[in-house]
Structures
1.
Amino acid sequence: MITSKIIAAGKAVPAKIVTNDDLSRLVDTSDEWIKSRTGIEERRISQNETTTDLAYEASKAAFDKYKIDPATIDLIIVATISPDNFMPSTASLLQERLGLNNRHVMAFDINAACTGLVYGIQIAHKFIQTGSAKRALVVGSETLSRTLNWEDRSTCVIFGDGAGAVVLEASDRGIIADYTNSLGDPDLNLAIPALPLKSPFADEMTCSPSCMTMNGAEIFKFASFAVKDAIVHVLEKSGLTMDDIKFIVPHQANMRIVSKISKVMHIPVEKFYVNIKNYGNTSSASIGIALDELLDSGQVHPGDKLILVGFGGGLTWGAILVEF
Ligand code: ACO
C-alpha cells in the first residue's frame, strides 16, 4: 500500500538567545520559577527574522542536508499562528523564496495552533496517498514573540520563535497511522485575537489588543488528556504497542506535561525526545525542530518507529506514527 515517508527534516531559529535571567529583568519572574514550572532555560527571539525567513531557512536546511532538489516539491503547507501577512500566505511567499514560481505547486497555510505540523503532515500524507502530490514540504514556522504581551509573566516566559520543516514522499513504508481531532473551545482558553470589526456598518466593538492569552491550568489539563488520547489512537490504529516505539516527539510545551504523561501511561521518560530547555514553546515549529535534532543525533535507524504528537489552541490535537 502506498504511504508517505519523511525523507528530510530541517530547522531554523533566530540568532538572539533570551535567557530566563534576561526575562527576570523585564517581568517579576526568576530562572528558578521558569525552570521548575516548565523546564525552559532559554528561547530564541526574533530581532529581524520573519516567519517567512525562518520557514525558508528551515526548508533550505532540510534540502541541503538531505540533498533534495527544491524543484521536485509540488505541495507546500505552512502551519503558523504568527504569519507575516493575512494574505498572501506564508506558503506562497516560501514558494517564491524557494524559486518555485514557475512550477506547478499547490501552496497554502493552515492554522491548527501547536498541532499545526501534525495536521500538515496528515494533509500532505493524504495528498500523496491519492496521487495528488509527489513530494510535499510541510513547515511549522512561528514568530510568536510578536503575539506576546511582554508585561504578562504568565505567558511571555513560555514561548519562543523558530521553524521546523519536513519533506514527505510516496513510499511503501513510512506513515503507519495518523489521528487528528479538535474541539471548539467556547472559553478561548488559548487565544490570539485578530482584527476587530471596524467598518462603518459594524456594531460598536471593543478593540482587543492582539496578544496571546492563556488559561494555563485548563491547558495543562487538556494537554494531559490530549497527548494520551492521540497516542492511544495511533497505537490502536496501527496494531502496535508502546514497546514497538523507539521515540515519542511531543509538542514541546512544558516538561511537566511530558513527566505527567510518562507517569500516567507508564512510558519511560527517556522515550520522549525533549529539547524545550533550549527553545521554549515554539508552537507549530516545535515538533519539527525536535525531530530534526533527534535525526541529527544518529539515534534513529531504518525501521525505527516514532510517534509525533501535538496539542494546542482550538483546541486541537493529533499524532502521526511513522517508520523511518
Ligand atoms: N514567574 C513567577 N511567578 C509566576 C509566573 C512567572 N513567570 N507566572 C505565574 N506566576 C505566579 C502566578 O501569578 C501565581 O501566583 P499567586 O499564587 O500569587 O497567584 C503562581 O505563580 C502560580 O501560578 P499558576 O498559574 O498556578 O502556576 P502553575 O504551576 O500552574 O504554572 C504554567 C503555570 C506553567 C503556565 C502551567 O499552568 C502550565 O504549564 N500550563 C500549560 C501551559 C501550556 O503548556 N501552554 C501551551 C500549550 S498549547 C500551546 O503550545 C499553544
2.
Amino acid sequence: MPDATVSSADAPTGNPHLAPYNARGLKGRILSGVQPTGNLHLGNYLGAIRNFARLQDDYECLYCVVDQHAITVPQDPALLASQTREIAAAFLAAGVDGGKQIIFNQSMVPAHAQLAWVFNCVARMGWMSRMTQFKEKAGKDRENVSLGLFAYPALMAADILIYKATHVPVGEDQKQHLELTRDIAIKFNNDFNAPDFFPITEPLIFGAATRVMSLRDGTKKMSKSDPSDQSRINLTDDADAIALKIRRAKTDPLPMPESEADAEKRPDADNLLGIFAALADREKTDVVSEFAGKQFSEFKAALTELAVARLGPVGAEMQRLMKDPGHVDAVLRDGAARARALADPILDEVYRTVGFLKP
Ligand code: AQP
C-alpha cells in the first residue's frame, strides 16, 4: 500500500471526531463512494468496500453513498432510497465503524454539488471527453444520455477534494477518474495562484482482485448494471445462489492453468483464480500452484465453500440492518452532520479564493 503524502488537508474544526488526521498520528484522510444503483456485487466488495474497513485504523475515513451520481441514469425514487440504505448497510456489515468513521449520503452535504460547479468551470471539455467510462456507458446513444453522466467525474473530484482527501481506495476501473481529480486539483491550484490548496490525491488500489470480471465473460467487468444476474455474485445472494452462479461460471475446456502466465491467457480462469486469492487473502501465484492441472469442478467446489464462508456473514448482517432502516438513517444523518462540519469551511475557502462574495 503506498505511503501517505500528507499535505494541507486539515480542516479547522473543534469537533473531536474531526480533529485533523495528522494530529492523531494517521496517514491521511480517505474519501470513497459507492453508487446506490442496486445489486452490490463481489467486485464492489473486493475492489472497494472490504478495503474500507481495513484502512480505518490508519486513516481518517469518509465513506459516501453517492446518490447524486446514481441519478446520472434514470432511477426509481423509492428504490433509490432503499438502495441508499442498502449501501450504507454494506459499509457497516463489512466492518466500518460508523461511530468512529463518517458514513453518509452525498446529497445530505450540499458542498459536494457546490464545489462540483466550480470544477465544471475548471475541467476542460477535452479531458472529460476522454473518460472511457462515459464512452462505455453512453455507447452509441451519446446524444441522448444526461449531461450529468458526462459531468460526473467533476462531481467525483468534488466529492474527494471538498474534504482535501489525500487517498481514495477504489477498484482499477476508477483510476482514470482519479487522474482527472488530480488534474483538476493542479489546474485549480495554478489558476487561482493557490499552491498546495488542494492535495494531489493518491488512489489506493490493492488486493488480488482490483478488477473483478463478469462470471459470464472474463473480458468484461463485473457490474451492477449488467442485465444478467448470473454475471455477478451479489452481496445479498444466499449460499445456494452463490453455489449455482459459481457452478455456471464460464470456463474453458482445459484443466486449471499450470502457471500465472498460462492463467493470464485464459481470462475466465484468471478471473476465478483472482477471486479465490482475494477472498482467501492469499497470493494468486499460490492459488494457481494449488490447483494447477486439476479439474475446474474441484476448484469451483473449493471456491464456492470459500465464497459462502466469506460473504455469508456480510450478506446476513446487511439483511439484518436492512430490517432496521431507522438505525441506518441515524448513521447517515449523524455522518452527514460530521461531513458538513468538515466540508463547509473548505467550501468557504474555495469561494473566497474564486472571488465569490459571502452572503
Ligand atoms: N468489477 C469490479 N472489480 C473491482 N472493483 C469494482 N468496483 C466496481 N466494479 C468493480 C469498485 O466499486 C466501487 C464502487 O463502484 P460504483 O458503485 O461507484 O460504480 P461503478 O464503478 O460504475 O460500479 P458498477 O458495478 O460497474 O456499477 P454500474 O454498473 O452502475 O456502473 C468503486 O471503487 C469501483 O472501482
